């Protein structure tokens, strides 16, 4: 069984990971091939990686480079990985078993398997599941070390984002995308008028069936006097669509179908889906709260009793903000009278968010338990906020950040390699 791969880190392809761990020949003595800071690279590691690289390149039909080049580049890769792993060890980067299990489950799911099936498939191929777990753990450590060091080197100003959005590249990035299904009933422009008329009548009949609820693919593939050709164009931005479609697409809502005539014949254009380009109205809530945390000197029951008492005092006329300043264990909001400002969906933990949604404006919620302790909250206001401009800017910022990340990562890797003590034997 061949298992398709997924990339978890920046230093090895997962297809290399899936090759498993090659064992050094017993008759060959292991030896140090490079000293890297406080660690070493062994000959067995180099042989193992060389085997993986050769198998990977061969499976992709790539011609192998000269042996001396392959050895030098593979050793350089191992040295660079070793440097990053040591950096991670020095700052305490750890990957817990639960995090590693989640990563393994994602690998299995991307191969269409459960974790148990994935393990069995690896063993069936003679691969080591434990070796793969450890390799992925290394990859995850390296990824965190890279992110921690590279992200702090990146700064994107508001002006830089505005300048990018004004460019053709920026405008294309934020264009809406369309997924269009297309069916063509081909008719020559030189065909007799009665034949063109019959074809148009049939195309309109199929269009009526689709608009009446028949699935697009079913309607255009049903037996009839004419056959349609075409298919799914996939996700495309407006500029990437042929002019025939770009003229129609913006006016189509999701699920709409339109009939268009061209020199090729009659086209049924169906908007299977669309994303982006719409105004993003987000329901926001302005809320304040009082948090009481259980502790060594206050049990969970006592914390609940206190917030229940505070709720009664507020409803009896005492000021919410004054009580929040005196009793709330949320240091960040206590000095603001418990005010958390405007919050959008997903910002708060689920229990708090549900209580916030269930509480009418101007009322105090019943005590609610979250991972942080016991809360009471008051909903001050609600509004629908247009977040379109914010979403567009965030998309541009993320794009620019990723572009700079790749550049800064290359520079940082060169820097740490130059600064490290490396003695190749």
Percent helix, as a range, is 40-55%
Total E-strand runs: 11
CATH superfamily annotation of the largest domain: Porin chaperone SurA, peptide-binding domain
Average pLDDT figure? 88
* Structural domains: how many: 4
Radius of gyration: 31 Å
> How do the SSEs run, as a string of H and E?
HEEHHHHHHHEHHEHEEEHHHEHEEHE
Biggest β-sheet description: 4 strands, antiparallel
Name given to the CATH architecture of the largest domain: Orthogonal Bundle
User: What is the CATH first-level class name of the largest domain?
Assistant: Mainly Alpha
Amount of beta strand:
15-25%
Written account of the structure:
- There is one protein chain.
- The chain is α+β, with helices and mostly antiparallel strands.
- The protein has 4 domains: 14-152, Orthogonal Bundle (Triger factor/SurA peptide-binding fold); 155-174 and 387-425, no CATH class; 175-275, Chitinase A, domain 3 (Roll), CATH 3.10.50; 281-386, Chitinase A, domain 3.
- The chain contains 16 helices and 11 strands.
- The chain has helices spanning 14-17, 43-59, 67-90, 97-110, 115-124, 129-150, 158-165, 168-173, 193-211, 216-221, 243-246, 300-315, 320-327, 331-334, 350-358, 388-419, and strands spanning 32-36, 39-42, 177-186, 229-237, 257-262, 265-275, 281-292, 339-343, 368-370, 373-386, 422-424.
- A 4-stranded antiparallel β-sheet has the order 4-3-6-5.
- β9 (368-370) and β10 form a beta hairpin.
- α2 (43-59) crosses α3, α3 (67-90) packs across α6 and α7 (158-165) crosses α16 (388-419).
């Amino acid at each position: 069984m061949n298992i398709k791969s997924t990339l978890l880190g920046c230093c090895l392809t997962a297809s290399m990971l899936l090759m498993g761990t090659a064992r050094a020949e017993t008759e060959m003595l292991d030896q140090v091939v490079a000293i890297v800071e406080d660690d070493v690279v062994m000959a067995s590691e180099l042989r193992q990686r060389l085997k993986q690289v050769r198998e990977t390149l061969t499976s992709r039909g790539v011609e192998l480079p000269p042996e001396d080049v392959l050895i030098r580049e593979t050793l350089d890769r191992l040295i660079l990985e070793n440097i990053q792993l040591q950096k991670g060890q020095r700052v305490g980067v750890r990957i817990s078993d639960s995090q590693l299990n989640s990563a393994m489950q994602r690998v299995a799911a991307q191969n269409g398997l459960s974790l148990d099936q994935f393990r069995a498939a690896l063993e069936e191929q003679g691969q080591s599941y434990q070796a793969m777990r450890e390799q992925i753990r290394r990859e995850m450590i390296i990824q965190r070390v890279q992110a921690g060091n590279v992200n702090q080197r990146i700064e994107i100003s508001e002006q830089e984002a505005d300048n990018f959005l004004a460019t053709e590249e920026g405008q294309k990035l934020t264009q809406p995308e369309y997924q269009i299904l297309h069916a063509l009933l081909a008719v020559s422009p030189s065909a007799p008028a009665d034949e063109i008329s019959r074809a148009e009548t049939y195309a309109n009949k199929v269009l009526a069936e689709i608009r009446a609820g028949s699935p697009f693919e079913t309607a255009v593939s049903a037996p009839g006097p004419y056959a349609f050709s075409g298919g799914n164009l996939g996700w495309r931005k407006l500029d990437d669509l042929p002019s025939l479609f770009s003229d129609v697409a913006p006016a189509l809502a999701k699920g709409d179908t339109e009939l268009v005539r061209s020199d090729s014949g009659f086209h049924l254009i169906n908007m299977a889906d669309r994303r982006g380009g719409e105004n993003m109205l987000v329901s926001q809530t302005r809320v304040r709260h009082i948090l009481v945390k259980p502790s060594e000197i206050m049990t969970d029951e006592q914390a609940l009793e206190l917030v229940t008492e505070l709720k009664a005092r507020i409803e009896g006329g005492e000021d919410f903000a004054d009580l929040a300043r005196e009793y709330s264990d949320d240091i960040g909001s206590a000095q603001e009278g418990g005010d958390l400002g405007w919050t959008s969906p997903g910002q708060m933990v689920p229990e708090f968010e549900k209580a916030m949604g269930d509480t009418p404006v101007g009322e105090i919620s019943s005590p609610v338990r979250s991972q942080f302790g016991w809360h009471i909250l008051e909903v001050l206001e609600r509004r629908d906020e247009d977040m379109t401009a914010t979403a567009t800017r965030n998309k541009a910022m993320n794009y620019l950040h990723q572009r700079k990340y790749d550049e800064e990562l290359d520079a940082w890797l060169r820097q740490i390699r130059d600064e490290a003590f490396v003695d190749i034997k």
